[in-house]
């Protein structure tokens, strides 16, 4: 709290990014965990909450007549422009946020104060939801070839690895320790995924310290042990996910890559995924394109191309496809590494696993996948996502890229995933939010030292509790559809890769497709289920009635000739009388459709930018145009028409129209 | 003329068919008057039936005695046929070339096609202007049906029946027709029931360099305005293009003569610029290299999405003027048969839920494209693989369909139909067994007695 110089500023304007003249006036509050903006408008008092940990940059902009602008960029791609009337307040907010957004101790993070009102037992159960031991069991381990190794007990061999690791049975502790000494940061080859269908494995490690000529017998034995652990195959692939040039440059520093001559029966392969610095810059460039106020189609496409972002996404997916093919089609085990084996290696291993195993395409399976390939294997969440103040050069959107790869696959295989886009977006949000303890620190060791599980809550339990929101209604649980490997087309289809506006522009209201098919289908599904339940209940009731009636008729028939009808109708009235308020019962659909007799059924299209119509042409626009918004805009829309023969250029009148 | 004269080799065995994403098929190739057929002559094998009119371009290659014909279709498919025997290959190629470029409309397949299904509806009479007018007549009495164009004498590209303001008699319409490009006097395109405002469309006014005017024209469009209200004229050309048009006798509405109207210039491209854009787009889509950046830059260089955006922006502007401003609109470009129709029809899709149903969409295409005289035969003569580069070949209709698809993507729950209907319409506009898209306008269709053949909407 001592960092908050001013807890409350009044008459702050929150600028609408698209039409700068439309700004909401309200009060800005700084709390220990959030920035909160509350609009003055009495009927709505709309609130905008921003977690400090989401703040990426804060920028003071040139003073305007309206006051002192402050631009806040968030890690979840939200963009906030505030105009503060007094320079002093602006400066105080700026200084406070600079400090609040860069905590120096873990204890300052939100997860240590976040309390979802769960008792201790519930919290512990939450942490137990995802269990990696179960996961390895599911893969069919341990078995005749693979065993759990305790060589890294107490993190004795490698401090960024978990304590429990699977290695080939033939790899003795001596071999593992020897191999670890020959690998960057001692990250020796360990199992990431076991494909039990054909006993083939995906292993991961860091680069070997081969320099120009160094060898290590134990490391060579280690790779041989991995090969022998899949008896069907006489070679293994060693995949270096770096561009060849980068790998060669590493040799000068005593690192490098495996020499095929020194290792028996390996096939060595480079797959050029760029390093974290290139990726950071690429995202930066792409976000600049997303921020353009009214880009022409060319601006957008050129900027997107120039950012190289989709090229990088494709490189990661290509690497995953290569490995998945090696495993499923060639039946060859694969060892994957990059430099340290915690960024590109994590991306590629998890993409390959996702392609190979339908389990990872379920809600729980996906959590397991992140837990296994990212959290347990020491992906440096703290450094990459800047949770604590640190070296800005360490920050890079590594897992963001993986999440986007999953989305690209979901677009290609809409029925293969149990979860929907929202699930991915919420995971991305929480990787940065620090609201849950899962993604804290850089390794399992650090997390254990901090006693994360005792002091914070697990995101997975939270997501699981709300899983209804994250289900994909198109998911086909039928094995023939979802089991087995996902096959991407082998013919080049560059247009397959799309710009993900649902992620990068998700805070621009009105920019997304205004109707969510997913929500619509979920509502239909829910309604169907309700009706089915109702039907079942009614059928039960009917059965009862018939029984009752049967008894009565039997009784009556003894007395006199009964009237079947009257007998039925009385019982009908007395028992089957369940007023079902259908209109109240059925959930109204979230989306507008003409069939609903909407009075104002015109589709409101953006006036200007069909910006997204990127590779995928998925229409959306930069133009805010919710239905409500239009009325105020078009009131002055008449001003847009250029006067007769004014020779105004056609774009300028459009601009007037937009800003009016 | 007999088709047989053009078919030198009607049948070749052991031909291998290659298609992207499918395994190769070996079979017998047959040429008929209208089709290229390849059958593996085994059970359960799909046969390839390709209309000659669907062929956009062909290439021949020879490796020894094996000839290869690469057929590029108007629907963007590329197929390859390996034909044993040089002579057979040459014969087949020249036959295909001749059969795919027949001029006469009456030799087209729709005149020969006999459906295998029961025709349940006479598609030619499913969407008549009278029926459309009935929908409005309950709401307004300010409009009437005019039969002034009964013999196609006033405007050859208009249908015999059009909807015009009641205040204008046929004599005045004839006068207005002489003042508008191609005789295309302003007619009703869409009546917005919510506020009684309308979209009209026409050809450009023939003001010329000396600023000719036509009182009847002014009276006609003013008849749609309410007292004290202004209307909008959306000219789909940029101002400088409209100004240049004056030198050729065309022009635009001078403010002095149309004081109640505001004019807005947009810049929707036409003609070969669009065709070149399509050629580049399809080239980019067919790029076989694994190169992400190249795809984006080629997509950008094609300008296809820029055209889409401009058309949609203009349609939105029209829809907003009508719905939010409560103003009537007149839309025209030069002839009023291309960009004008894109804008009027898209504005209706935005405004009118009915046009987002299958039936309503068919009616829209019938009304705003076929009866409105979009020259389908000229525009769709060639597609993305053509080399001819004729000015009149242009994917105007395809751009419209793409725009609809873009809206559909944004409002996935507002359409009764899916993208398959759009693709189907695209395919039939370029090559079809149905007569719907034959000819350039109603009068051409009328005189070639198309009634005998089938409507795609039937």
Features:
heterodimer, A: alpha+beta, PH-domain like, Protein-Tyrosine Phosphatase, Chain A, 24 helices, 14 strands, globular, disordered C terminus, B: 458 residues, 2 domains, five-stranded mixed beta sheet, elongated, phosphatidylinositol-3-phosphate phosphatase activity (chain A), phosphatidylinositol-3,5-bisphosphate phosphatase activity (chain A)
Helices, strands, pairings?
The complex is a heterodimer of chains A (660) and B (458).
Chain A (H helix, E strand, L loop, with lengths): L7 E8 L7 E8 L3 E6 L7 E5 L3 E6 L7 E7 L4 E6 L2 H14 L19 H9 L3 H7 L7 E4 L15 E4 L4 H9 L8 E6 L4 E6 L11 H12 L7 E5 L3 H8 L14 E5 L5 H16 L5 H11 L1 H20 L4 E5 L6 H13 L6 H14 L4 H4 L13 H15 L8 H13 L10 H7 L1 H4 L3 H7 L13 H4 L18 H4 L12 H43 L4 H12 L6 H4 L41 H8 L15 H10 L1
Helix pairs in contact in A: 2-17, 4-5, 7-8, 9-10, 9-13, 10-11, 10-13, 13-14, 20-21
Chain B lengths: L2 H4 L4 E8 L6 E7 L3 E5 L8 E4 L3 E9 L2 E8 L4 E7 L1 H14 L29 H9 L5 E4 L15 E4 L4 H10 L7 E6 L4 E5 L13 H8 L8 E5 L3 H7 L15 E5 L6 H14 L6 H11 L1 H20 L5 E4 L6 H13 L6 H14 L4 H4 L16 H15 L8 H12 L11 H6 L11
Helix pairs in contact in B: 4-5, 7-8, 9-10, 9-13, 10-11, 10-13, 13-14
């Amino acid at each position: 709290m001592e960092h908050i110089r001013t807890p409350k500023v009044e008459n702050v304007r929150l600028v609408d990014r698209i039409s700068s003249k439309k700004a909401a006036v309200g009060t800005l509050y700084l709390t220990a965990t959030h920035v909160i903006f509350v609009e003055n408008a009495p009927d709505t008092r709309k609130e905008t909450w921003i977690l400090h940990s989401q703040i990426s940059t804060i920028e003071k902009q040139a003073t305007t007549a309206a006051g002192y602008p402050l631009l806040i960029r968030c890690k979840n791609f939200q963009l906030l422009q505030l105009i503060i009337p007094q320079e002093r307040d602006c400066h105080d907010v700026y200084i406070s946020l600079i400090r609040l957004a860069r905590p120096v101790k873990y204890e300052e993070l939100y997860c240590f104060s976040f309390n979802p009102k769960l008792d201790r037992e519930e919290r512990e159960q939450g942490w137990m939801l995802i269990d990696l031991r179960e996961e390895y069991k599911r893969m069919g381990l341990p078995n005749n070839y693979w065993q759990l190794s305790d060589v890294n007990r107490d993190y004795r061999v490698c401090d960024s690895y978990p304590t429990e690791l699977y290695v080939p049975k033939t790899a003795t502790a001596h071999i593992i320790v020897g191999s670890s000494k020959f690998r960057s940061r001692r990250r020796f080859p360990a199992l990431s995924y076991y494909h039990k269908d054909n006993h083939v494995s995906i292993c991961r490690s860091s680069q070997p310290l081969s320099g120009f000529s160094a060898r290590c017998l134990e490391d060579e034995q280690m790779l041989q042990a991995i090969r022998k652990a899949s008896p069907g195959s006489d070679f293994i692939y060693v995949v270096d996910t770096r561009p060849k040039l980068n790998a060669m440059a590493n040799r000068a520093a005593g690192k490098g890559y495996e020499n095929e001559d020194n290792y028996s029966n390996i096939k060595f392969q480079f797959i050029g995924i760029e390093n974290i610095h290139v990726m950071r810059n690429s995202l930066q460039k792409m976000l600049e394109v997303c921020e353009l106020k009214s880009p022409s189609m060319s601006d957008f496409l050129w900027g997107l191309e120039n950012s190289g972002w989709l090229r990088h996404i494709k490189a990661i997916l290509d690497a995953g496809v290569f490995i998945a093919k090696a495993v499923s089609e060639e039946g060859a085990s694969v060892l994957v590494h990059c430099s340290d084996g915690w960024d590109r290696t994590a991306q590629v291993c998890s993409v390959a696993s996702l392609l190979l195993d339908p389990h990872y395409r379920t809600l729980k399976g996906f959590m397991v996948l992140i837990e296994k390939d990212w959290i347990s294997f020491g992906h440096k969440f703290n450094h990459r996502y800047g949770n604590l103040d640190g070296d800005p050069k360490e920050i890079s959107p590594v897992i963001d890229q993986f999440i986007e790869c999953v989305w690209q696959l979901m677009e290609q295989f809409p029925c293969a995933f149990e979860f929907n886009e929202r699930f991915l977006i919420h995971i991305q949000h929480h990787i940065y939010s620090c609201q849950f303890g899962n993604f804290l620190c850089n390794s399992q060791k650090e997390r254990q030292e901090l006693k994360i599980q005792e002091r914070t809550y697990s995101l997975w339990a939270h997501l699981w509790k709300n899983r209804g929101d994250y289900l994909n209604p198109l998911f086909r649980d039928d094995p023939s559809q979802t089991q087995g490997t996902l096959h991407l087309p082998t013919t080049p289809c560059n247009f397959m890769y799309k710009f993900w506006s649902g992620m990068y522009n998700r805070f621009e209201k009105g920019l997304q497709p205004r109707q969510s098919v997913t929500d619509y289908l979920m509502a239909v599904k829910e309604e169907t289920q309700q009706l089915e339940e109702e039907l079942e209940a009614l059928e039960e009731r009917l059965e009862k009635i018939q029984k009752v009636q049967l008894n009565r008729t039997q009784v009556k028939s003894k007395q006199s000739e009964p009237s079947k009808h009257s007998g039925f109708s009385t019982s009908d009235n007395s028992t089957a009388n369940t007023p079902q308020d259908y209109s109240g019962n059925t959930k109204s659909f979230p989306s507008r459709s003409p069939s609903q007799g909407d009075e104002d059924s015109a589709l409101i299209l953006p006036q200007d930018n069909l910006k997204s119509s990127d590779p995928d042409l998925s229409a959306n626009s930069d133009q805010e145009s919710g239905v409500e918004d239009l009325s105020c805009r078009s009131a002055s829309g008449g001003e847009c028409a250029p006067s007769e023969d004014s020779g105004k250029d056609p774009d300028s009148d459009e601009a007037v129209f937009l800003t009016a | 003329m007999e088709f047989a004269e053009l078919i030198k080799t009607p049948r070749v065995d052991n031909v291998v068919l290659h298609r992207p994403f499918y395994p190769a098929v070996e079979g017998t190739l047959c040429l008929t008057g209208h089709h290229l057929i390849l059958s593996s002559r085994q059970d359960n094998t799909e046969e390839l039936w390709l209309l000659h009119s669907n062929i956009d371009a062909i290439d021949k290659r020879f490796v020894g005695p094996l000839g290869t014909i690469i057929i590029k279709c108007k629907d963007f498919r590329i197929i390859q046929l390996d034909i044993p025997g040089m002579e057979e290959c040459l014969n087949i190629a020249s036959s295909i070339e001749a059969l795919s470029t027949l001029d006469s409309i009456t030799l087209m397949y729709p005149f020969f096609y006999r459906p295998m299904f029961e025709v349940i509806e006479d598609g030619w009479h499913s969407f008549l202007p009278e029926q459309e007018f009935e929908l409005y007549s309950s709401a307004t009495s300010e409009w009437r049906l005019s039969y002034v164009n009964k013999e196609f004498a006033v405007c050859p590209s208009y249908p015999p029946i059009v909807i015009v303001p009641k205040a204008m008699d046929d004599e005045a319409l004839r006068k207005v027709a002489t003042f508008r490009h191609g005789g295309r006097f302003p007619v009703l395109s869409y009546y917005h029931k919510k506020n009684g405002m309308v979209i009209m469309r026409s050809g450009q006014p023939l003001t010329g360099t000396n600023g000719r005017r036509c009182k009847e024209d002014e009276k006609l469009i003013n008849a749609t305005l309410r007292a004290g209200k202004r209307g909008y004229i959306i000219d789909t050309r940029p101002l400088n293009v409209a100004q240049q048009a004056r030198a050729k006798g065309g022009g635009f509405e001078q403010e002095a003569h149309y004081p109640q109207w505001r004019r807005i210039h947009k810049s929707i491209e036409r003609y070969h610029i669009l065709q070149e854009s399509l050629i580049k787009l399809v080239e980019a889509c067919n790029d076989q290299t694994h190169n992400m950046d190249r795809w984006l830059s080629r997509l950008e260089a094609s300008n296809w999405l820029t055209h889409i955006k401009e058309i949609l922006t203009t349609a939105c502007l029209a829809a907003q003027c009508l719905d939010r401003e409560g103003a009537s609109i007149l839309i025209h470009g030069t002839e009023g048969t291309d960009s004008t129709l894109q804008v009027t029809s898209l504005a209706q899709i935005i405004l009118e839920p009915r046009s987002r149903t299958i039936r309503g969409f068919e009616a829209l295409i019938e009304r705003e494209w076929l009866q409105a005289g979009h020259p389908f035969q000229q525009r769709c003569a060639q597609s993305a693989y053509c080399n001819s580069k004729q000015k009149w070949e242009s994917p105007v209709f395809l751009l419209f369909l793409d725009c609809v698809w873009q809206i559909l993507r944004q409002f996935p729950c507002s359409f009764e139909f899916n993208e398959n209907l759009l693709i189907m319409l695209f395919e039939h506009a370029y090559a079809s067994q149905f007569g719907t898209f034959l000819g350039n306008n109603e009068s051409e269709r009328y005189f070639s007695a198309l009634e005998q053949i089938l409507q795609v909407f039937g």
